[in-house]
# Entry
Amino acid sequence: MLTPADVTALFLTLKLALVTTVILLVLGTPLAWWLARSRWRFKFLLEALIALPLVLPPTVLGFYLLLTLGPRGIVGNMMQAIGGEALAFTFTGLVVGSVIYSLPFVVQPLQDTFHNIGKRPLEVAATLRASPLDRFSTVVLPLAKGGFVTASMLGFAHTLGEFGVVLMLGGNIPGETQVLSIAIYSHVESLEYTQAHLLSAGLLLLSFVMMLTVYGLRARARVTHL
Amino acid sequence: MNLLSIKLPIRKGNFALSLELDLPLHGITAIFGPSGSGKTSLLRAIAGLDKYPGGYVKFAAQTWQDETVFTPVHKRQLGYVFQEDNLFSHLSVKENLRYGTRRAGTDTAVIDHIIIMLQLQNLLEHKPWQLSGGERQKVAIARALAIKPQLLLMDEPLAALDQTFKQEFLPALKNLVNELRLPLLYVSHASDEVAQLADNLVLIDKSGTASYGQLATMLTDPDLVLAHRQEAESIISAEVSAYDTEYAMLTLQFSGQKIFVSGKAMHAGTTVRLRILAQDISLTLSPQQGTSILNIFSVTIKEIFPFSAAQDTILLDLAGTPLLARITRKSKDLLGLKPDQNVFAQIKSVAIAQ
# Structure
């Protein structure tokens, strides 16, 4: 059965994915909104930057984050200067890494959703006396519901599977940075295949259920919008 | 009288339209012109949906736009109906209607009345995707009317709908707008819609110049493009005075004249609009005897202007009503027609546009 360490890793992973998803939704919504609406001609620069984690080896991202967030890095130095600690090898460091690593998985679906909603519903709402904030909360948010579910699921599931960034940036500290993917790796290294199976199958199932939700919703949306 | 005064330098890519207009705020004003002449841009600019600096929009005593002011759309007392995609897809018909009225604070009696007038009672619980195109536009129009705007703007609301629906719906729309005493600006590129609906007309031509006037005058003005179309027409506002059931024939009156039109029975006193195509009028020097044509009027020639190599258009005055006739140049020369001459107009066909 699951060892106490595995249970700790499981809860740490869920906590990391949850915190990361919430932060990404808070940061990603205005960013995606701006990207969907702006006509700035150099917008593509920002879009390319956001998409970078899709193709970049996670170890590369982890490596640079280690340098920046570590005791000798810029951010690490700043954190120490204000009386904190360097972020490398901490849970907070993992959150920072995960936010960057999963950014495109949240921003892109939201941007697509906002883009597809178009200007029209907002213009209609404006002619019906709705203020800008009112329009966003009563028109955009309900119309973008599917996009928010997709973005949350993708962000969450992608963070669950994070390995390279964690390994580089957080190492393997139980209760602090040892997430499921690292625990599985350790089990395999120690030839504990039963444990590795248990955790792997669990992750597989969870990820599959989330993807089912995303694509199930998408199929339903297609039917009702015919 | 209240005016909508606008001066808008509209620029879009290499398209430019510079307009300066003072429109009286009563009745239905059609904005008519060919596709791409900037009608929609003009309407959007009046509403504040697009911003073109360097002009002004003044609605009665309120300044909606000038050098220093730009009132956002949601603070302008207007209603707007787009050509399509008007309804919120996540809300039912009822919720769509209430979206506006809740924010505008309209009382429910008005909404109930509009729902009945436009026959939406059975659609209230439907979602927009369950409605036909015509029903969707009706709901959008009802929603715009229900917020009791001081000015209603419609951008080709019926352009995507079939002719049958239009013919049924236009009279209802006209009645409702008149009843609510709502000034309406109605963008259209369909001349039949304009002829049925409009009291006044803003005509935008390809070169980007706009002219404004009463519909009957504008339709027959030799200086405007309308009188030079193949389907040039005149309109007469007339009142039903009698109906002859044996012949299914209405008798109508206008400026002391009588005109006979075949059609369905109507209540005496009903005002209708008659449309007469220029090509359905022929001219004679003396009143014809023994002709099948019922409607013959004594008219005065005001102006003769060329239409094609073979035909001329003639502007006539029928007891104060302008009327266009189109005849061959050969007939004109044979009859020796010239301005200020008194002749007789024979009207072959009259259509009723209610």
Remarks:
- The longest strand of chain B covers residues 233-244.
- Chain B is about 25% helix and 35% strand.
- Residues 3-228 of chain B form a domain with the Rossmann fold fold (CATH 3.40.50.300).
